[in-house]
What we know:
Order of helices and strands: HHHHHEEEHHEHEHHHHHHHH
Distance between the termini: 90 Å
Structural class: alpha/beta
Strand content: 5-15%
Amino acid sequence: MPQKKKTQNAFSFFMLDYKKKHEALGVKFPGGLKDVANACSAEWSRLTPGQKGPYVAQAKNAKVRDGINDERYTSEGIPVSFIERMRRRKQEFEDNMVDYIKRAVDPSKGCDSLLQKKFYFLHVNRYCCKLCMDGTSDFYPAEFAIAEFSLRQGVQKTYHEIIDIDLPLGYAADIRDYSRQTHKIPRNPSCGQKNFSIMYERLRKFLEPETIGAELPPLYTANSFRAVVPGLLSRMAATAGQTVDIFRIYSFETLFFHIRNAAATIKNSTGFPVISFAEEEIRKDVFDHAPGIACDYHSSIDGTTVHCSLSIVIRWAYTICDYCCIDLDIDMQPGFHCPIDKDSIAIKRAKAALDSNDVRRIPDQAEVFHSFADITGVTPEHRLRTSERTWKEELARRQTGRPLQIIDHSKIRNSNLQEIETAPPRATTNSHSFSAMTRKPQRPLRLPYSMSLAMKGVGSDQLPTMSEKNFPSIGGRGGGS
């Protein structure tokens, strides 16, 4: 490591000036600058900032001349000032994002404004992540999908591409393992698009703003994918001589949080108290196995539709509709607001059953009870009646029931068991015992110590004798040879 250059501060230049003036007057400093420092330190402390100014300027000019700065660095060699600038820039971007989203979904503009507002959801799958020399990460895109969404119309149009890109050397194992675990897109797919210029033009046309020359609308993606998206957009922008800054990548969770609360404000219902509620709903992904929304490639491979970019952006739209459409009195259309196999009649029935404090639709209670009755045979009335009992009522019911009756088989007269004679009821001391019911068997039972029905009608001469021939010994430690 090269030796760090020594710097001269303002006091050093003051000492040199002090030494020069006093040596002209005949003062000697045998100890060199050490004696000068001891002699002039008191005078230096009495100087005003204005009097110290010339010496401070000399120190700064010396650092510039010698190429010396006071920059601090992290253990990785990154300037602390750069990190601080990036932190302020990121915070400013987040503040601008929140302000934009709040204005876009402002409930004071009316319900129609919120329903007609268009939003664009973007998801990008990757092959691998390469660490660059400047400490940043470069993600190589494998697939992306974008969906245009509004609360009134649902998902209106989508654009999806699988990408064939030249991958870096040394990442073959990472690419293979990540692909197998998620999207299962191989290297150099036959259906992949190689030309980023074509993809850029298609994306620009998809995002064409209403006003000519206006900036592109923001793209919303989940927080877990915000670092991956620039890997795609930067390559697209580079083909047009642009930078990735022409695209604004905003948080989908933040949008979901504010849309839900705007819908709740309009309906005067309960919204999300904190943004973590929206983050948790996106993490749960309740529509992850909705059919018919994945691309053709992933639809042909088992277990991959949940990782398909096209499926993911549509599921994000369904999640917003699932929380907001009921409050906004939107008739949810299967395939646009909810999965195609969704029972629209059940949705309307649940919508009528909701009160103003609910934030989610609830299942129809009678439908749930009848489904249990079909499976178990227990009627809804009986299930309700037993579930409404308190413990005291159940204990009283058991105590007032008939005591347990013991069937004495020694008093059974015949083997047909057309009647059952029982001993007189015997009182029980167990207050928790259940009441007994007279059991009428469906088929005859054999008397104790009697012949089985299978052996009836067989003569004694026909029975096999207990001989070694008929019943040979098994052998082993416990028997004969």
